[in-house]
Design brief:
The chain is α/β, with parallel strands linked by helices. It has helices at residues 23-34, 44-49, 53-56, 74-88, 107-120, 139-143, 164-176, 196-207, 218-223, 231-247, 254-260, 267-275; strands at 14-18, 38-42, 62-65, 92-96, 125-131, 148-151, 185-188, 212-215. The protein has a domain at 11-132 and 162-191 and 251-265: 3-Layer(aba) Sandwich (Rossmann fold), CATH 3.40.50.720. The chain is 43% helix and 14% strand.
């Protein structure tokens, strides 16, 4: 029987964060530091310099596993990471998935569903986090002059937007105090559903100026900002926009309370913190 009653042990005091150099990895590293846990940031350079992932994971007791965004073969990437973790003696893994992973029309979501299956069937003690779309993804557009949210999907569809700070805090908590979290899957989102137009209204109140918000044509996006992307990524994003157009991405917010014992911050409070 797997013992999930203990808090972090000496063996697990070093936490490897694979995918540490992006905004998610940085949030996880910051939250681990606040908990007093030593972390080992890992990316492509560190893995290459160490002679491979298994060598880079030596001495770590836990792994936060985050695949590169829009990875062409996340299933193989996760399988290789799990094999390397097992070879290095890592005991626990927290896999960074996505809300609504089994969405066959969105290939990058479906890859995470298949990767989740690998994690659950591995010999490692596991926890899965499923964040909604990050509210922080809107910040560059809201900090622009003039601020505007122009997106190639319906601005009135419901979303469960995740606060990146909550993602980091949940990751640190389930690693530092695993009791009750092993074998668990948690959605991460705000306290209530919101649309892009709701984000624009809340941002307008914070900024004291109107934030334009409207749907743009996906084809124009593909010929404009999307033109610089590889064809596969552009196609996957267009499929995601179409899904958002039809369904949004609703996500429940109770996962934050279940893990952290508090409610996630309301939309306006997160924007006030981020936009000053």
């Amino acid at each position: 029987m797997i013992d999930d009653t203990s808090t972090a042990t000496t063996e697990e005091s070093v936490v490897a964060v694979l995918g540490a150099h992006g905004k998610t990895g940085q949030a996880v590293l910051g939250a681990l530091a606040e908990r007093g846990l030593a972390a080992r940031p890992l990316g492509r350079a560190e893995i290459a310099d160490a002679g491979g992932l298994a060598a880079a994971l030596a001495g770590c007791g836990a792994l936060y596993l985050l695949a590169p965004n829009m990875h062409p073969d996340e299933v193989d990437y996760v399988a290789s990471a799990l094999d390397a973790a097992a070879a290095a003696g890592v005991r626990r893994v927290v896999y960074h998935s996505v809300a609504t992973p089994f969405a066959p029309t969105m290939p990058h979501h479906l890859a995470k569903a298949r990767a989740e299956d690998l994690v659950r069937r591995s010999d490692l003690a596991w926890t899965v986090l499923q964040p909604g779309a990050y509210l922080q993804n809107f910040l560059p557009a809201l900090r622009a002059d003039p601020p505007a949210l122009l997106v190639p999907y319906d601005v009135h569809r419901p979303f469960g937007f995740a606060d990146l700070a909550d993602v980091g805090a949940l990751a640190a908590e389930v690693i530092a105090a695993p009791a009750g979290h092993l074998g668990a899957t948690y959605e991460v989102a705000g306290p209530e559903l919101a649309s892009v137009s709701d984000v624009a209204r809340a941002a307008s109140a914070v900024l004291g100026r109107e934030v334009e918000c409207r749907r743009t044509d996906p084809g124009e996006w593909a010929d404009g900002h999307g033109a610089a992307l590889p064809e596969r990524e552009r196609d996957w994003l267009l499929r995601m926009f179409a899904y958002y157009d039809d369904h949004g991405l609703p996500v429940g917010g109770r996962g934050v309370r279940a893990v952290l014992g508090r409610d996630p911050l309301p939309l306006g409070d997160v924007l006030r913190r981020e936009l000053g």
